[in-house]
Amino acid sequence: MATPTTLEPKVGCISTAAQILGNKWTAQILRDLADCSQRFCSLEKSVEGINPRILSQRLNQLEESGVVSKSDNGYSLTDKGRELIPVLEQMAQWGAKYC
């Protein structure tokens, strides 16, 4: 059984975050929703290389996780989703340093 550490004071927290951010394309979708709501077709264009079926699946998963909400205006981040922005910013900084 895993024990808490200074990095993860409550076991399972990293796993919970990885379940959301660990899927291919999810970080890019969240990146593109960070500034404003977007319609499906706009996301399909901005997340280059994603096929519509996968985009639909990812958006459904993000909705079920409470990270994204869907309205008549398209998809947008919830408060929970906006709290992931600093994580994405750190990922971007790390990527810029090592890519």
How do the strands and helices of this protein lay out in sequence?
Blueprint: H1 13-21, H2 26-33, H3 40-46, H4 52-64, E1 68-71, E2 74-77, H5 79-82, H6 85-98
Describe this structure in words.
The protein has a two-stranded antiparallel ribbon with strand order 1-2. It contains 6 helices and 2 strands. With 99 residues, the protein is mainly alpha-helical. The longest helix has 14 residues. It is globular, with a radius of gyration of 15 Å. The chain is 56% helix and 8% strand. The mean pLDDT is 93. It has a single domain, classed as Winged helix-like DNA-binding domain superfamily/Winged helix DNA-binding domain (Arc Repressor Mutant, subunit A, Orthogonal Bundle).
Put the structure in a nutshell.
With 99 residues, this protein is mainly alpha-helical. It has 6 helices and 2 strands, in the order H-H-H-H-E-E-H-H.
Task: Please tag this protein with its features.
about 100 residues, mainly alpha, Arc Repressor Mutant, subunit A, two-stranded antiparallel sheet, 6 helices, 2 strands, about 10% strand
